[in-house]
Amino acid sequence: MRPFHYREGILRADEVPLDQVAARFGTPVYVYSEMAIHERYTAFSHALGPETLLCYAVKASSNLHLLSCLAHWGAGFDIVSGGELARVLRAGGDPQRIVFSGVGKSREEIAAALNAGIFCLNVESEAELERVDTIASELGCRAPVALRVNPDVEPGTHRYIATGLRESKFGIPMAQAENLYLAAERWPAIDFRGIACHIGSQLTDLAPIAEAARKVRGLYERLSKAGMAISHLDLGGGVGIRYHDEQVPTPADYAAVLHDALTGLPVRLVVELGRSIVGNAGVLLTRVEYLKDNEGKKFCIVDAAMNDLLRPSLYGAWHDILPVQEAELPAETGTLDVVGPICESGDFFARGRLLAAKAGDLLAILGAGAYGFAMASQYNSRLRPPEVLIRGNEARLIRRRETLADLLAPEENPG
Ligand code: LLP
Question: Residue whose CA is closest, atom 24 of ligand 1?
Fold first, then answer.
């Protein structure tokens, strides 16, 4: 069953009617289905097999309660900051199942990761390698490292989230990475364990992932000929989901492509999946404040805004919007822009959308489970919304709504 579906004319998350969630917790509010997350996690985990380390990309949605469900189901974690490390440890994640990505790791973040005993640091430059080597030798340990290579592959996604092209800041060009591996003795406190790669996000075509995997395989083979023992290949994340009408890969398609590319290699596969686990397991529930007609241009002003869900403003991303109370679609002339209260014309969730809506109605913005709350801010001094987790017929608050006291405290007591 789809996690968000109508029954008796009301949109529900699993068994729970969303109008009840709004009445209890107010709007705007993020609502996630634990069952939907579990289904996606287990579908990927079964398809990839027990030998694969499936790391959940914490940046997609980082609530402690979601992380603790994932830890409980056996997930590993892909982190990009000391903050994400703290979240995963607090949620009971196993440090030996954590990989740490990112181009700008600070000294403190590297030391914290080494002290926690994480599985691997994905290093993105020679300068970072030097820094990790120094810190590991100060701490008297050897740092488990994979170099993140940049395979220069066109991923076919929005420019802002393409990461494996030559011009992007991510990774190390293949030839340069090969030279670094071959000069391993220059960094005595580095234990080169893996090769890592992540070419972008919301990839609807698996061919670029296969191409990147083949390039990583080529590097692995050259390094093993040179006598270097690499024990894992981390092929990143990026599996796209359906927001609108995209054709997207299934977990089985994805696993087959990776397994094919790595056939016969005695290595452990690592992946870093974010959006494909949580993206369609969450909605942002919002209430219509006003309708407004500016000489024929119709606006539906809701109580959520770009500070709550940035994706439409930042990437022009499409999110389906459904009325919580099922309604007939209006005629074509009835298209609306769904916009928030923020003082920018870029503050919109949909433009020219066919939607039945009147003041007071509840709307659900779909596909908000990944990079939704995680990218929320307090812009315009708005309070970030609460998060609610649905388990069967129970709705549980997993983050409370911010208060004016939360907003003002860091300035009233700057320390
Ligand atoms: N690994 C690395 C190194 C990454 O940079 C990312 C995402 C992932 C894994 C997870 O990718 P996923 O499986 O979720 O596609 N805010 C954007 C997405 C940014 C993705 C950044 N990196 C959006 O809302 O579309």
Answer: 371
Structure tokens given for 283:
């909605």
Cis? peptide before 173, omega within 30° of 0: no
The answer to whether residue 69 is catalytic is no
CATH number of the domain located at residue range(s) 94-273 in this protein: 3.20.20.10
pLDDT tens-digit readout, 364-406: 999 999 999 999 999 999 999 999 999 989 999 999 999 999 9
Q: Could you tell me if the CB of 60 is within 6 A of ligand 1?
A: yes
Question: Burial of 405 by CB count in 10 Å (0-12 exposed, 13-18 middle, 19+ buried)?
Answer: exposed
Distance in angstroms (rounded) separating the CA atoms of residues 363 and 338: 10
How far are the Cα atoms of 61, 96, 100, 317, 368 from residue 309, in angstroms, in the given order? 12, 33, 26, 11, 8
Nearest Cα to Cα of residue 21 among 36, 4, 38? 4
pTM summary value: 0.97
In the chain, where the domains are located: 4-32+280-411, 94-273
Establish whether residue 235 lines the binding site of ligand 1, counting it when its CB lies within 6 angstroms of any ligand atom: no
Q: Is 33 in the pocket of ligand 1 (CB under 6 A)?
A: no
Q: Is 269 helix (H, G, I), strand (E, B) or coil?
A: strand
* Model pLDDT for residues 66-114, shown as the tens digit of each residue: 999 999 999 999 999 999 999 999 999 999 999 999 999 999 999 999 9
- Write the CATH number of the domain with boundaries 4-32+280-411: 2.40.37.10
**Cα 48 to ligand 1 centroid, rounded to whole Å:** 19
